């Protein structure tokens, strides 16, 4: 299907790129249909583009490629809501914030976006009682950014 976007113009979105967020994303609860877009020249960053509002798009990345020790517990209630029955169905993303420059970009590890890749269902999960924050630096000393996607699931119980 063809989709008009503010940042990318008119693009073709495949059905397998569409994810439904039944409750929206916090702050954007009315928006329930998004596409995960990958542009090779932007790897390892992707875009979570609203299919309902052309102006709404989030930069996302796989948190395990940046923080290999990242881990959290996904509550049974969230697994049931997303219809997750096995790890192979799961992908985890973090929203990236770029303020002044890419070098100061941060990622939200406190509220990962969890997607059932088979059922195309997603939810941003707020991790309660967690030591993670909404602003973890992406580029750190002696850190080399991965050039492509890493494992979709690692460190999620």
Automatic annotation (TrEMBL):
SUPFAM superfamilies: BH3618-like. Its main location: cytoplasm. It is found in: Cytoplasm. It holds the Pfam family FliW. Keywords: Bacterial flagellum biogenesis, Cell projection, Chaperone, Cilium, Cytoplasm, Flagellum, Translation regulation. Acts as an anti-CsrA protein, binds CsrA and prevents it from repressing translation of its target genes, one of which is flagellin. Binds to flagellin and participates in the assembly of the flagellum. Interacts with translational regulator CsrA and flagellin(s). HAMAP family: FliW. Belongs to the FliW family. NCBIfam families: PRK13285.1-1 (NF009793). This is Flagellar assembly factor FliW. It comes from Paenibacillus hexagrammi. The lineage of its organism: Bacteria, Bacillati, Bacillota, Bacilli, Bacillales.
């Amino acid at each position: 299907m063809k989709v008009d976007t503010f940042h990318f113009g008119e693009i073709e979105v495949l059905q397998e790129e569409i994810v439904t967020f039944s409750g929206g994303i916090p702050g954007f609860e009315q928006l329930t249909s998004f596409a995960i877009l990958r542009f090779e020249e932007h790897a390892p960053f992707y875009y979570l583009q609203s299919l309902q509002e052309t102006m709404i798009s989030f930069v996302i990345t796989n948190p395990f490629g940046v923080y290999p020790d990242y881990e959290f517990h996904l509550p049974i209630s969230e697994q049931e809501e997303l219809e997750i029955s096995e790890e192979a169905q799961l992908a985890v993303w973090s929203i990236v914030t770029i303020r002044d420059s890419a070098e100061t970009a941060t990622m939200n590890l406190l509220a990962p976006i969890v997607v059932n890749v088979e059922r195309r269902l997603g939810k941003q999960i707020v991790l309660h009682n967690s030591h993670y924050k909404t602003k973890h630096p992406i580029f750190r000393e002696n850190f080399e950014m991965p050039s492509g996607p890493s494992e979709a699931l690692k460190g999620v119980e």
